[in-house]
Amino acid sequence: MITGVCALIAVPLTALAGSARAEPLTVFAAASLREALDGAAAGFSGEVVLSYGGSGAMARQVALGAPADVVILANEAWLRWLDDEGALRAGSVARVMGNRLVLVGPEGAAPLEDLSAEALRARLAGGRMALGQVLSVPAGIYAKEWMQSAGLWEALAPHLAETENVRAALALVERGEVALGVVYATDARAARVTVVQEIGAEAHSPIAYWAAVIEASEHPQAEAFIAHLLGPAQDGFAALGFVPRAALGALP
């Protein structure tokens, strides 16, 4: 009788364990990674639920205890802030890929060879230039660095339309609501816009996407997903125009 009772109990316990393993992996990620991570998740062995937004917004949600297992941000500063908050698992931080910054206009826009303040204001024709929020959205932070290094910030700051993430800035350009926008090169490839000028990498901090496991996560596949991003998924990232991890230099 005792053996029979144990057997009956063992079945639901096993089922519960299987159910726990089947829980999807929750990933909070920068909005500019949508196509890249959708593809990477499709090639992963487990179920992945992806939530996209501005890197600053994602970081703040994680710090407030949002139920994420992995976070992938477009700015090292936000990831280091989370680390300082004790929100990340020790030893799990890794650079996944890089990107480039470009200046875009609506589809069919003419190239803009002259990036002087006068030429940019002339192209705007009294309108605004779209970009992510310069204090919190990585693409906006990089864009401000470019404008400051080129001596354009004072002249262009009054003509900016700041958005909650880089995809929102891209949408303004795509709809023709603004004449110019500063976005990632990969965003431009995925939208009906025209790159009017590339912005040199020397004009801003290196653009890299950083991933880490959330300290509170108990998901058994969290670290495996990051390993997947660093390995099998790299070819897919490169095909979308991202800078592969191997080309980012010697940092971890």
TL;DR?
The protein has 252 residues and is an alpha/beta fold. Helix content is 40%, strand content 22%. The N terminus is likely disordered.
What is the N-to-C succession of helices and strands? HEHEHEHEEHEHHEHEHEEHHE
| Radius of gyration (Å) | 21 Å
Give the total of domains: 2
Which architecture name of the largest domain does CATH use?
A: 3-Layer(aba) Sandwich
Q: What's the CATH topology name of the largest domain? A: D-Maltodextrin-Binding Protein, domain 2
- Class from secondary-structure proportions: alpha/beta
Low-confidence stretches are 1-21
Distance between the termini: 58 Å
| Molecular shape | elongated
Count of extended strands: 11
Strand content: 15-25%
Helix content: 25-40%
Could you tell me the mean pLDDT?
A: 90
Summed up, the helix count is: 11
The top-level CATH class of the largest domain is Alpha Beta
Strand order across the largest sheet = 2-1-3-10-4-11
CATH homologous superfamily name of the largest domain? Periplasmic binding protein-like II
Largest sheet: 6 strands, mixed
Structural commentary:
The protein folds into two domains: 138 residues, Periplasmic binding protein-like II (D-Maltodextrin-Binding Protein, domain 2); 103 residues, D-Maltodextrin-Binding Protein, domain 2. Helices cover 40% and strands 22% of the residues. The radius of gyration is 21 Å and the shape is elongated. The longest helix has 20 residues. The strands form two sheets. The chain has a six-stranded mixed beta sheet with strand order 2-1-3-10-4-11. The protein has a five-stranded mixed beta sheet with strand order 7-6-8-5-9, sandwiched between helices. Helix 3 packs parallel to helix 4. The chain contains eleven helices and eleven strands. The protein is an alpha/beta fold and 252 residues long.
